[in-house]
Design goal:
Length: about 450
């Protein structure tokens, strides 16, 4: 007679992990649940029967939202020891505001450490999904527990008529990126740059209508993806000129490569981009037998350069971005490629947009991302800024956290009433300049969270 064997998915996964971790195994493992019955039953036992917070059931509309994620802790037998749910806080597209709740653990000593592990896992899961705001409503008795885990108290709220506390997990993704990419520039670059254009994407050449820009590609990127590096060396320089309203007229490249074949790949991307944007490669320097290196200097022409620091408090902030395309393979969450498949006429329309519109201030979104670049524009203008997160033009294929911190291909931040006619790129008013400094994110419920507490570069007002 055969004996039936019943094994849940959770048990099978746990067994596989235990085999890797060795003996003795951990007391529990946390995973994303694919069935929720045990978690819902545990919630009923604790919140309905034991605590009496709900009359019959604690289930609500968030349990029926397909975007809701449930994390559970299982012991070696696959039994659920606790769980927590989390997911987008607003209806419609995910705008990077997530909310956690219904944290529950099975009563008894066998669940020691489960609650803290679930909370930490929820924070990591929300940030991995691109959340820039993560809130939770907690019972008064667990407020100190959450504070010890690093959460911040926002204020009192009520759940099912019972006093709770709204708490927030501090997500520093934006400030960390800005600090790493641009935070030390003020110390390094004092007294460099023409008056009125300090920290700009390019520099007007004194006594002429020329604007010069220069960008280097990270050597690791050149080594890893040489043709894309060549394309990007043109893209970033042309965008820098475009942010100042200048028409590109020529490029000079400096290339280091280990051999002829590698150099040819870089130059192939550079030539394709130069042809697409209609800008001449005037010359440069090439050296073989050395580690990968690439930098490009670009020259443009305008009689009216647009400064990055020309904004003032009260002005609207507009983001104009090309949201087509997708993540560059190998750079998901970091580099959005909207340009390499565009037609030349489309690329050139985007490049010409700032020059035609002549806004008061403009900056090309750089590796500091949308928020970090807005912080630089505000800093150069002697202002602070507010960004309305829900109003930001964003691709459907990118999380808000990734989109606001990536290099987006083509994206321009401008101030003033002027609307950019940028071909296929889309624009929207998504904030304003304010008195003070730094950048805050404004959410659909009117609340704000701080993204940058001060200027980004330390260069100060232009």
């Amino acid at each position: 007679m055969s004996t039936p064997v019943v094994q849940t998915t959770g048990v099978r996964r746990a067994a596989e992990v235990y085999a890797l971790l060795g003996d003795p195994p951990p007391a529990f493992l946390i995973e994303e649940a694919d069935t929720f019955d045990a978690y819902h039953e545990l919630r009923r036992q604790v919140f309905v029967e034991k605590q009496g917070l709900f009359a019959k059931s604690d289930r609500d509309e968030r349990d029926d939202d397909p975007r809701t994620v449930v994390l559970v802790a299982r012991n070696a037998h696959g039994e659920v020891l606790g769980g927590v749910r989390l997911g987008p806080a607003t209806d419609g597209p995910d705008i990077g505001w997530w909310r956690g709740g219904r944290l529950v653990t099975r009563p008894g000593g066998a669940t020691r450490g489960v609650g803290a592990a679930l909370v930490r896992s929820a924070c990591a899961r929300a940030e991995a999904a691109g959340a820039l705001r993560f809130d939770a409503t907690v019972q008064l008795g667990t407020q100190r527990f959450f504070e010890r885990l690093g959460w911040q108290t926002v204020g009192p709220v009520a759940v099912a008529g019972t006093p709770h506390v709204l708490m927030r997990w501090p997500i520093d993704r934006v400030s960390r990126l800005a600090r790493t990419a641009k935070g030390d520039l003020g110390v390094l670059l004092q007294r460099i740059g023409p008056a009125g254009f300090v920290g700009d994407d390019g520099a007007p050449v004194p006594g002429s209508d020329l604007v010069a820009a220069c960008d280097a590609i990270v050597p690791a990127m050149v080594e890893r993806d040489p043709e894309w590096a060549g394309w990007c060396s043109v893209l970033v320089n042309v965008n820098d000129l475009a942010a100042m309203g200048a028409t590109p007229i020529g490029l000079l490249d400096a290339l280091g490569a280990r051999d002829v074949a590698f150099a040819a790949q870089v130059l192939s991307g550079l030539r394709r981009a130069a042809a697409a944007y209609g800008v001449s490669i005037l010359g440069g320097h090439t050296q073989l037998g050395v580690p990968a290196a690439l930098s490009v200097t670009a020259l443009g022409r305008t009689a009216q350069p647009v400064p990055g620091g020309g904004g003032r408090p009260g002005q609207q902030v507009r983001l104009t971005a090309d949201v087509a395309g997708g993540w560059r393979p190998g750079y998901a969450g970091r580099q959005w490629d909207s340009t390499s498949h565009r037609q030349p006429a489309e690329l050139r329309a985007m490049v010409a947009a700032v020059g035609h519109a002549q806004p008061d201030a403009a900056k090309d979104v750089s590796m500091a991302g949308v928020v970090g670049t807005l912080g630089m524009l505000a800093e150069a203008s002697g202002c602070g800024a507010v960004l309305d997160v829900a109003a930001v033009p964003k691709p459907a294929g990118a999380s808000m956290g990734d989109w606001l911190t990536c290099f987006p291909g083509y994206a321009m931040l401008t101030t003033g009433p002027q609307q950019l006619d940028a071909g296929p790129a889309v624009g929207a008013i998504c904030g304003e300049l304010t008195s003070g400094q730094g950048v805050v994110l404004r959410w659909p419920n009117g609340e704000t969270t701080q993204a940058l507490s001060a200027g980004v570069t330390g260069l100060g007002a232009a």
